[in-house]
Design a protein that fits this description.
Layout: E1 4-7, H1 16-33, H2 40-54, H3 61-70, H4 75-92, H5 99-108, E2 112-117, H6 121-131, E3 139-142, H7 143-146, H8 153-163, E4 170-174, H9 177-185, E5 189-193, E6 204-205
Parallel strand pairs: 1-2, 1-4, 2-3, 4-5, 5-6
Length: about 220
C-alpha cells in the first residue's frame, strides 16, 4: 500500500517552464525599453544559450548576457531586467489547476506528502510559499541544502528517512525520467507526469489528479 506521495516541484506542481519563459522575455523587453539595442527574438535565443551553459539556478544570467552584448555590465539595464523578471514571476506564479484539489484529496486519504527538488533553498521555498502549498507537506528536501542532487539515490534515501517508511510504500512523482531513476534505484514506486513535456515512460500521467488512481 502506498502511504506517501513525494513530488518534484518545478513543472510538476506548477508550470515553471512557461513562467520562466515569460519572465525572461519581460526582462529583455524592459532592457530594450531602457535603451539596449538588441533584437528581442535573437536576444532570447542568446539568453537561453547562456541559461543552458550555466544552469537554471545560476544567479547572473543577465550579467553574462550584457557582457556578451556590450562587453560590460550596464547596471541600469541589469536592474530594469531583474525588476521585470521578478515582477512577472511574482504576478503570475500559480499552481496547476489540479494541484491543490489533488493534494487535498491525498491528505484526506491520510497520505504523507513531501517535496524533493533540485535548486537553491531560498528560491525553492519562495516558490512554495508564493504558491501557497507549504501546509500540505510534512517535509521539503532541497538539493543544495542536503548536498545531494536528483537523480542521486542519496536524496531519496533522505526522503525515506524523513518518512520513516520502507521504499515500496512511497511513490515519487516527477516530470523527468532521469530523476525518477534515482527513486526507482532505492525501491520507491515512480510515476512520470508529462503535462509540460511528453516522454515514453510507464507508468505515466498527464494530469496530477490521475495520481489518485495509484493510491488507495
Amino acid at each position: 500500500m502506498i502511504k506517501s506521495v513525494v513530488f518534484d516541484l518545478d513543472d510538476t506542481l506548477y508550470n515553471s517552464t512557461a513562467l520562466s519563459e515569460s519572465a525572461r522575455k519581460s526582462a529583455l523587453k524592459a532592457m530594450v525599453n531602457e535603451g539596449l539595442d538588441i533584437d528581442l527574438k535573437k536576444g532570447y535565443e542568446d539568453l537561453m544559450r547562456i541559461v543552458k551553459r550555466y544552469g537554471s539556478n545560476y544567479s547572473e544570467h543577465f550579467n553574462r548576457f550584457l557582457e556578451e552584448k556590450l562587453g560590460y555590465v550596464d547596471y541600469k539595464f541589469l536592474a530594469s531586467g531583474v525588476i521585470a523578471y521578478h515582477n512577472t514571476k511574482f504576478a503570475y506564479i500559480r499552481p496547476f489547476d489540479d494541484t491543490v484539489p489533488t493534494l487535498i484529496k491525498l491528505v484526506k486519504r491520510k497520505k504523507k506528502l513531501g517535496i524533493v527538488t533540485n535548486g537553491v533553498p531560498v528560491k525553492q521555498w519562495e516558490k512554495i510559499l508564493r504558491l501557497g502549498l507549504e501546509h500540505f507537506f510534512e517535509f521539503v528536501i532541497i538539493s543544495s541544502e542536503v548536498k545531494y542532487e536528483k537523480p542521486s539515490p542519496k536524496i531519496y534515501e533522505i526522503a525515506l528517512e524523513r518518512l520513516d517508511l520502507p521504499p515500496e510504500e512511497a511513490l515519487m512523482v516527477d516530470n523527468k525520467i532521469e530523476d525518477l531513476k534515482g527513486a526507482k534505484n532505492v525501491g520507491m514506486k515512480t510515476v512520470l507526469i508529462a503535462r509540460v513535456k511528453d516522454a515514453e515512460y510507464a507508468p505515466k500521467i498527464k494530469k496530477l489528479s490521475e495520481i489518485l488512481n495509484f493510491v488507495d
